[in-house]
Amino acid sequence: MFEKAAMLFLYCETPVHAGTGTSLSIVDLPIQRERITGLPIVQASSLKGVLRAEVERLKGKQIAETLFGPETQRASDYAGCVSPHDARLLLFPIRSLVGVFAWATCPLVLERFKREMIAANFSVNWSVPALPTNSQQALVAESSEIVADGKVVLEEFAFEAQEDNRAKQIADWLTTNAFPESEEYAPFCEWLPKRFVILPDNAFRDFTQLATEVIMRIRLDQEKKTVAPGALWSEEHLPSETLLYAPIFVSKPLAPNANQLGLADSNAVLQELSGLQFDRLQIGGDETVGRGIVKVRLNVPTS
Q1: Cβ distance 136 to 160 under 8 Å?
Q2: What is the SS3 assignment for 91?
Q3: Which of 50, 124, 216, 297 has a C-alpha 20 to 30 A away from that of 165?
Q4: What is the largest CA-CA distance in the chain?
Q5: Half-sphere CA count of 233, side-chain side, radius 13 A
Q6: How far, CA to CA in Å, does 89 sit from each of 85, 139, 238?
Protein backbone atom coordinates (compact mmCIF):
# COMPACT_ATOMS: atom_id res chain seq x y z
CA MET A 1 0.00 0.00 0.00
CA PHE A 2 1.29 3.45 -0.87
CA GLU A 3 2.18 5.61 2.13
CA LYS A 4 3.51 8.87 0.67
CA ALA A 5 3.00 10.94 -2.46
CA ALA A 6 4.52 13.72 -4.53
CA MET A 7 3.46 15.65 -7.62
CA LEU A 8 5.68 15.93 -10.68
CA PHE A 9 5.13 18.82 -13.09
CA LEU A 10 6.55 18.67 -16.62
CA TYR A 11 6.83 21.87 -18.67
CA CYS A 12 7.47 21.17 -22.36
CA GLU A 13 10.34 23.30 -23.67
CA THR A 14 10.32 21.57 -27.05
CA PRO A 15 7.58 19.58 -28.82
CA VAL A 16 7.06 16.19 -27.15
CA HIS A 17 6.24 13.00 -29.04
CA ALA A 18 5.19 10.24 -26.66
CA GLY A 19 3.81 8.03 -29.38
CA THR A 20 1.52 5.03 -29.73
CA GLY A 21 3.12 3.56 -32.85
CA THR A 22 1.46 3.40 -36.25
CA SER A 23 -2.10 4.56 -36.86
CA LEU A 24 -4.86 4.43 -39.44
CA SER A 25 -5.64 8.14 -38.97
CA ILE A 26 -4.34 11.01 -41.09
CA VAL A 27 -1.32 11.25 -38.76
CA ASP A 28 1.04 8.31 -39.17
CA LEU A 29 2.49 8.49 -35.63
CA PRO A 30 -0.01 10.01 -33.17
CA ILE A 31 0.63 10.83 -29.52
CA GLN A 32 -0.70 8.89 -26.54
CA ARG A 33 -4.24 9.79 -25.44
CA GLU A 34 -6.76 8.73 -22.84
CA ARG A 35 -9.33 6.36 -24.26
CA ILE A 36 -12.36 8.05 -22.67
CA THR A 37 -11.59 11.78 -22.88
CA GLY A 38 -9.22 11.81 -25.86
CA LEU A 39 -6.91 14.16 -23.96
CA PRO A 40 -3.13 13.77 -24.46
CA ILE A 41 -1.12 11.90 -21.82
CA VAL A 42 2.34 10.45 -21.31
CA GLN A 43 1.85 6.90 -20.13
CA ALA A 44 3.25 5.92 -16.74
CA SER A 45 5.55 3.29 -18.25
CA SER A 46 7.27 5.92 -20.39
CA LEU A 47 7.65 8.29 -17.45
CA LYS A 48 8.93 5.55 -15.14
CA GLY A 49 11.64 4.56 -17.60
CA VAL A 50 12.83 8.15 -17.95
CA LEU A 51 12.90 8.70 -14.19
CA ARG A 52 14.69 5.41 -13.62
CA ALA A 53 17.39 6.30 -16.14
CA GLU A 54 17.87 9.75 -14.57
CA VAL A 55 18.11 8.33 -11.03
CA GLU A 56 20.66 5.78 -12.23
CA ARG A 57 22.68 8.57 -13.84
CA LEU A 58 22.59 10.72 -10.72
CA LYS A 59 22.77 8.14 -7.92
CA GLY A 60 23.84 4.83 -9.42
CA LYS A 61 22.23 1.53 -10.33
CA GLN A 62 21.61 0.29 -6.77
CA ILE A 63 19.47 3.28 -5.82
CA ALA A 64 17.59 3.11 -9.14
CA GLU A 65 16.77 -0.57 -8.65
CA THR A 66 15.67 -0.01 -5.05
CA LEU A 67 13.28 2.74 -6.12
CA PHE A 68 11.96 1.32 -9.39
CA GLY A 69 12.66 -2.40 -9.16
CA PRO A 70 15.34 -4.62 -10.73
CA GLU A 71 15.89 -5.09 -14.44
CA THR A 72 13.53 -7.26 -16.47
CA GLN A 73 15.61 -10.44 -16.06
CA ARG A 74 15.25 -10.16 -12.25
CA ALA A 75 11.82 -8.52 -12.11
CA SER A 76 10.45 -11.31 -9.89
CA ASP A 77 12.99 -10.61 -7.11
CA TYR A 78 11.06 -7.65 -5.66
CA ALA A 79 8.90 -4.74 -6.72
CA GLY A 80 9.93 -1.10 -6.81
CA CYS A 81 8.61 1.32 -4.22
CA VAL A 82 8.09 4.38 -6.47
CA SER A 83 5.02 4.40 -8.70
CA PRO A 84 4.62 7.25 -11.22
CA HIS A 85 1.15 7.61 -12.71
CA ASP A 86 0.26 8.86 -16.18
CA ALA A 87 1.30 12.44 -16.88
CA ARG A 88 -1.94 14.27 -17.65
CA LEU A 89 -2.57 17.54 -19.40
CA LEU A 90 -3.03 20.65 -17.26
CA LEU A 91 -2.34 23.64 -19.56
CA PHE A 92 -2.40 23.56 -23.36
CA PRO A 93 -1.00 26.46 -25.43
CA ILE A 94 -3.25 27.72 -28.24
CA ARG A 95 -2.48 30.41 -30.80
CA SER A 96 -4.30 33.65 -29.94
CA LEU A 97 -5.31 36.65 -32.04
CA VAL A 98 -3.74 38.91 -29.40
CA GLY A 99 -1.16 38.05 -26.77
CA VAL A 100 0.54 35.55 -29.14
CA PHE A 101 -0.83 32.46 -27.38
CA ALA A 102 -3.01 31.48 -24.44
CA TRP A 103 -2.53 28.80 -21.80
CA ALA A 104 -5.89 27.03 -21.87
CA THR A 105 -7.57 24.54 -19.57
CA CYS A 106 -11.15 23.53 -18.76
CA PRO A 107 -13.31 22.64 -15.72
CA LEU A 108 -12.94 18.89 -16.31
CA VAL A 109 -9.14 19.08 -16.32
CA LEU A 110 -9.08 21.37 -13.27
CA GLU A 111 -11.46 19.20 -11.26
CA ARG A 112 -9.41 16.07 -11.98
CA PHE A 113 -6.20 17.88 -11.13
CA LYS A 114 -7.66 19.16 -7.85
CA ARG A 115 -8.90 15.66 -6.97
CA GLU A 116 -5.47 14.17 -7.55
CA MET A 117 -3.72 16.91 -5.59
CA ILE A 118 -5.99 16.26 -2.59
CA ALA A 119 -5.45 12.49 -2.93
CA ALA A 120 -1.70 13.16 -2.78
CA ASN A 121 -2.20 15.14 0.46
CA PHE A 122 -1.71 18.62 -1.00
CA SER A 123 -3.71 21.66 0.01
CA VAL A 124 -5.69 23.37 -2.77
CA ASN A 125 -7.33 26.66 -1.85
CA TRP A 126 -9.24 27.44 -5.05
CA SER A 127 -12.54 26.32 -6.52
CA VAL A 128 -13.28 25.46 -10.12
CA PRO A 129 -15.84 27.77 -11.80
CA ALA A 130 -18.84 26.20 -13.45
CA LEU A 131 -18.94 26.56 -17.21
CA PRO A 132 -21.57 24.79 -19.35
CA THR A 133 -20.06 22.23 -21.69
CA ASN A 134 -21.50 23.87 -24.81
CA SER A 135 -20.99 27.45 -23.64
CA GLN A 136 -19.44 30.06 -25.91
CA GLN A 137 -17.85 31.83 -22.95
CA ALA A 138 -14.21 31.81 -21.91
CA LEU A 139 -13.18 32.74 -18.37
CA VAL A 140 -10.15 35.00 -18.00
CA ALA A 141 -8.44 36.97 -15.25
CA GLU A 142 -8.76 40.71 -14.88
CA SER A 143 -6.55 42.70 -17.30
CA SER A 144 -6.13 39.68 -19.56
CA GLU A 145 -3.90 40.26 -22.60
CA ILE A 146 -5.73 37.77 -24.82
CA VAL A 147 -9.03 39.70 -24.98
CA ALA A 148 -9.83 41.81 -28.06
CA ASP A 149 -13.14 43.71 -28.24
CA GLY A 150 -14.62 41.53 -25.53
CA LYS A 151 -13.67 38.27 -27.23
CA VAL A 152 -10.99 35.62 -26.88
CA VAL A 153 -10.03 34.42 -30.37
CA LEU A 154 -8.10 31.14 -30.38
CA GLU A 155 -7.06 29.79 -33.77
CA GLU A 156 -10.18 30.70 -35.81
CA PHE A 157 -12.71 30.31 -32.97
CA ALA A 158 -14.11 33.21 -30.93
CA PHE A 159 -15.41 33.08 -27.36
CA GLU A 160 -17.13 35.73 -25.25
CA ALA A 161 -14.58 36.83 -22.64
CA GLN A 162 -15.82 36.87 -19.07
CA GLU A 163 -13.61 38.05 -16.22
CA ASP A 164 -13.70 35.70 -13.24
CA ASN A 165 -11.73 36.13 -10.04
CA ARG A 166 -11.40 32.35 -9.72
CA ALA A 167 -9.46 32.26 -13.00
CA LYS A 168 -6.98 34.71 -11.46
CA GLN A 169 -6.73 32.61 -8.28
CA ILE A 170 -6.04 29.43 -10.23
CA ALA A 171 -3.47 31.11 -12.48
CA ASP A 172 -1.67 32.62 -9.49
CA TRP A 173 -1.67 29.24 -7.72
CA LEU A 174 -0.22 27.50 -10.78
CA THR A 175 2.45 30.19 -11.05
CA THR A 176 3.53 29.56 -7.47
CA ASN A 177 3.07 25.79 -7.24
CA ALA A 178 3.33 24.26 -10.72
CA PHE A 179 5.53 26.38 -13.01
CA PRO A 180 9.31 25.82 -12.91
CA GLU A 181 10.99 27.77 -10.12
CA SER A 182 14.24 28.67 -11.88
CA GLU A 183 15.08 32.26 -12.76
CA GLU A 184 14.66 31.88 -16.52
CA TYR A 185 10.95 31.18 -15.96
CA ALA A 186 10.24 34.47 -14.15
CA PRO A 187 8.77 36.09 -17.31
CA PHE A 188 6.57 33.06 -17.96
CA CYS A 189 5.23 33.18 -14.40
CA GLU A 190 4.41 36.84 -14.97
CA TRP A 191 2.67 36.07 -18.28
CA LEU A 192 0.51 33.18 -17.07
CA PRO A 193 -2.26 35.15 -15.29
CA LYS A 194 -2.45 37.52 -18.27
CA ARG A 195 -2.76 34.70 -20.83
CA PHE A 196 -4.74 32.14 -18.81
CA VAL A 197 -8.14 31.03 -20.08
CA ILE A 198 -10.70 28.45 -18.94
CA LEU A 199 -12.63 27.04 -21.90
CA PRO A 200 -15.74 24.84 -22.03
CA ASP A 201 -14.88 21.13 -21.85
CA ASN A 202 -15.93 20.35 -25.42
CA ALA A 203 -13.99 23.24 -26.92
CA PHE A 204 -10.87 22.39 -24.94
CA ARG A 205 -11.01 18.75 -26.01
CA ASP A 206 -11.38 19.79 -29.65
CA PHE A 207 -8.34 22.07 -29.44
CA THR A 208 -6.22 19.30 -27.93
CA GLN A 209 -7.20 17.03 -30.81
CA LEU A 210 -6.96 19.51 -33.68
CA ALA A 211 -4.35 22.07 -32.59
CA THR A 212 -1.43 19.81 -31.74
CA GLU A 213 1.79 20.15 -33.72
CA VAL A 214 2.12 17.80 -36.70
CA ILE A 215 5.60 17.50 -38.18
CA MET A 216 6.53 15.86 -41.47
CA ARG A 217 9.63 13.65 -41.44
CA ILE A 218 11.58 12.23 -44.38
CA ARG A 219 14.57 10.00 -45.01
CA LEU A 220 16.68 10.68 -48.09
CA ASP A 221 18.16 8.17 -50.48
CA GLN A 222 21.83 9.03 -50.08
CA GLU A 223 22.65 8.34 -53.74
CA LYS A 224 19.67 10.00 -55.41
CA LYS A 225 19.14 12.74 -52.76
CA THR A 226 15.40 12.17 -53.00
CA VAL A 227 12.96 10.78 -50.49
CA ALA A 228 13.52 7.05 -50.03
CA PRO A 229 10.52 4.83 -50.88
CA GLY A 230 8.11 4.73 -47.95
CA ALA A 231 10.24 7.17 -45.95
CA LEU A 232 7.82 10.09 -45.72
CA TRP A 233 5.70 10.18 -42.58
CA SER A 234 3.95 12.55 -40.18
CA GLU A 235 4.37 12.76 -36.40
CA GLU A 236 2.09 14.40 -33.84
CA HIS A 237 3.63 16.34 -30.94
CA LEU A 238 2.47 18.13 -27.85
CA PRO A 239 3.49 21.74 -28.52
CA SER A 240 6.10 23.70 -26.59
CA GLU A 241 4.75 25.50 -23.49
CA THR A 242 2.41 22.61 -22.56
CA LEU A 243 2.19 21.82 -18.83
CA LEU A 244 1.64 18.24 -17.61
CA TYR A 245 1.37 16.76 -14.13
CA ALA A 246 1.92 13.25 -12.78
CA PRO A 247 1.26 11.96 -9.25
CA ILE A 248 4.04 9.82 -7.80
CA PHE A 249 3.19 7.42 -4.98
CA VAL A 250 5.73 5.86 -2.63
CA SER A 251 5.64 2.76 -0.43
CA LYS A 252 8.12 1.05 1.87
CA PRO A 253 11.14 -0.32 -0.07
CA LEU A 254 11.20 -4.08 -0.64
CA ALA A 255 14.80 -4.38 -1.86
CA PRO A 256 17.00 -6.53 0.47
CA ASN A 257 19.69 -3.83 0.62
CA ALA A 258 17.34 -0.88 1.20
CA ASN A 259 18.49 -0.33 4.81
CA GLN A 260 22.15 -0.27 3.82
CA LEU A 261 21.34 2.40 1.23
CA GLY A 262 19.57 4.56 3.81
CA LEU A 263 16.13 3.86 2.36
CA ALA A 264 14.48 2.11 5.28
CA ASP A 265 10.96 3.52 4.85
CA SER A 266 8.74 5.61 2.59
CA ASN A 267 9.83 8.85 4.26
CA ALA A 268 13.45 8.14 3.34
CA VAL A 269 12.43 7.32 -0.24
CA LEU A 270 10.48 10.56 -0.58
CA GLN A 271 13.41 12.50 0.86
CA GLU A 272 15.74 10.79 -1.62
CA LEU A 273 13.48 11.74 -4.54
CA SER A 274 13.09 15.36 -3.46
CA GLY A 275 16.84 15.66 -2.94
CA LEU A 276 17.66 14.61 -6.50
CA GLN A 277 16.77 18.07 -7.83
CA PHE A 278 15.64 16.96 -11.27
CA ASP A 279 16.27 19.68 -13.83
CA ARG A 280 15.38 18.62 -17.38
CA LEU A 281 14.39 15.26 -18.83
CA GLN A 282 13.97 13.91 -22.34
CA ILE A 283 10.62 12.16 -22.83
CA GLY A 284 9.34 10.28 -25.86
CA GLY A 285 10.87 9.87 -29.28
CA ASP A 286 13.00 11.96 -31.63
CA GLU A 287 15.73 12.62 -29.05
CA THR A 288 18.33 13.11 -31.80
CA VAL A 289 16.35 15.95 -33.38
CA GLY A 290 15.80 17.87 -30.15
CA ARG A 291 12.31 16.74 -29.24
CA GLY A 292 10.95 15.84 -25.82
CA ILE A 293 12.84 18.26 -23.55
CA VAL A 294 10.82 19.05 -20.41
CA LYS A 295 11.62 21.20 -17.39
CA VAL A 296 10.85 19.33 -14.18
CA ARG A 297 9.42 20.42 -10.85
CA LEU A 298 8.80 17.90 -8.03
CA ASN A 299 6.52 19.01 -5.17
CA VAL A 300 6.33 17.16 -1.86
CA PRO A 301 3.51 17.78 0.67
CA THR A 302 4.57 19.73 3.71
CA SER A 303 2.50 17.65 6.13
Answers
A1: yes
A2: strand
A3: 297
A4: 65
A5: 15
A6: 13, 19, 10
Q: Which residues pair with 152 in a beta bridge?
A: 147, 159
Contact 233, 29 (CB under 8 A): yes
- Residue count (the chain): 303
CA distances, 116 to each of 88, 93, 175, 270 (Å): 11, 22, 18, 18
Given a cut of 70, whether residue 185 has pLDDT beyond it is yes
Give the span between the Cα atoms of 2 and 22, in whole angstroms: 35
pTM beyond 0.90, yes or no: yes
| Helix%, strand%, coil% for the chain, nearest 5 | 30, 30, 40
39 with 27: CB under 8 angstroms?
Answer: no
- Are 10 and 244 in contact, with CB atoms under 8 Å apart? yes
The per-residue pLDDT for range 154-166, each reduced to its tens digit, is: 999 999 999 999 9
Per-residue confidence (pLDDT) for residue 277, from 0 to 100: 81
Q: Which residues contact 223 (CB under 8 A, 6 or more apart)?
A: none
pLDDT at 1: 67
C-alpha distances in Å from residue 105, one per residue of 39, 205, 230, 292, 297: 11, 9, 38, 21, 20
User: Quick one: pLDDT at residue 24?
Assistant: 64
One-character DSSP codes across 200-245: -HHHHHHHHHHSSEEEEEEEE-TTT-SEEEEEEEEEEEBPTT-EEE
What distance in Å separates the CA atoms of residue 258 and residue 275, rounded to the nearest whole number?
17
CB 90 within 8 Å of CB 104: no
Higher confidence at residue 97 or residue 1?
97
Please tell me the least confidently modeled range out of 115-129, 224-238, 243-257, 287-301: 224-238
